């Protein structure tokens, strides 16, 4: 036989639990509504229409393994990083078009960011952490980031720049596999950046903000590419 | 006890006598021919299928080509070492290690792609550098760039002679960049001749045989060039 006071206590506790559950649910709903109201999607700055300018694109052609120069007119922002991103977006839009000479899905959204940093010197001293990576023209991610950090402490306003192109994983996942298509994509990005922003002398790649060994199983994405090397001198084979 | 001591005494005396004997004149051996070894690296394998070649993975095609080429080279008296003989996963660094330990005179990294046409030949895009005693791992190929470009030229000539379309290029390929031998990447693309379905290329034994025969001829030519002083 359960004593009467225990039955009453149980009933009270049960009622308290139900009340607390309801209150908790209402608090959660209130917090959710507050968050939704907090996300003010109204523009805080009037959109500016950038003036249309000419941009030089180095468009890859799978048929003959070449980069062909193409001049496009498009609105370009003044900020160099944003400018580089818009130009690369246009290049990748061409590759995503149906009648392209170098089919790669993804388009402009494949370039998440382009960061411009002071270019590190390419003659590293032999004593560097991770010496296996250190060599002329090619560095591991750790060494390169260390160098970029060191170089950024003494920036030269008109000095050469390192462009870090952050691609999306969706672009990399959809990229055709093969030495030729991967190499052409990398070289066309490097060459296009250098053609429009001549201060960019070196290019590195990230995928979703992280270093990645290869683009689609072949071309090395861990090395620093010299942008000038990608520009064809006679418009043919890089 | 005495018998054992006597045996040891006789053995010592015999050794001493042989050591004192005048040396028998031996015919001077011919100078040894430098060993000519080709490394065939069938790209991908195991967990890494590589690209898709219409209806087969790249790893299967490169392995089949490696086996075919090994047989052709063996028939021509060329010693061959392969990085893999089965569908196994091999790290790019391990491939370079195998090549570097073998001290091969030619290293071919075999690939295939649906893109483009004919055969794509790639040498490393590293800048040439003089050989050093302790080269950096990721740029070890720098000291061999000149030889690698010469090898690409020989292979290019043989492929053109066989009537194949060839494109030449430079690239950054992790395994090749670490090899300390004349190294090129050979990428087989579909045959896009008029009236020929490119999708059939990777299943057509005649196309594969034509490519493999041309590569074997090129390596025989490379061997001849290597033997010349």
Written description of the protein model:
The complex is a heterodimer of chains A (238) and B (229). With 238 residues, chain A is of the alpha+beta class. In chain A, 39% of the residues lie in helices and 19% in strands. Chain A has one domain (52-230). Chain A is built from six helices and six strands. Chain A has a four-stranded mixed β-sheet, sandwiched between helices. In chain A, strands 1-2 form a two-stranded antiparallel sheet. The model of chain A is unreliable at 124-143, 149-153 and 233-238 (pLDDT under 50). Chain B has a six-stranded mixed β-sheet, sandwiched between helices. A two-stranded antiparallel sheet of chain B has the order 2-3. The mean pLDDT of chain B is 87. The longest helix of chain B has 23 residues, at 205-227. In chain B, helix 4 links the parallel strand 6 and strand 7. Chain B has a single domain (37-227), classed as Aminopeptidase, CATH 3.40.630. The A-B interface holds A 62-65, 131-138, 140, 176-183, 186, 213-214, 216-220, 222-223, 225, 229, 237-238 and B 44, 48, 50-52, 58, 111-117, 120, 122, 125-127, 129, 136-139, 142, 167-174, 177, 185, 187, 189.
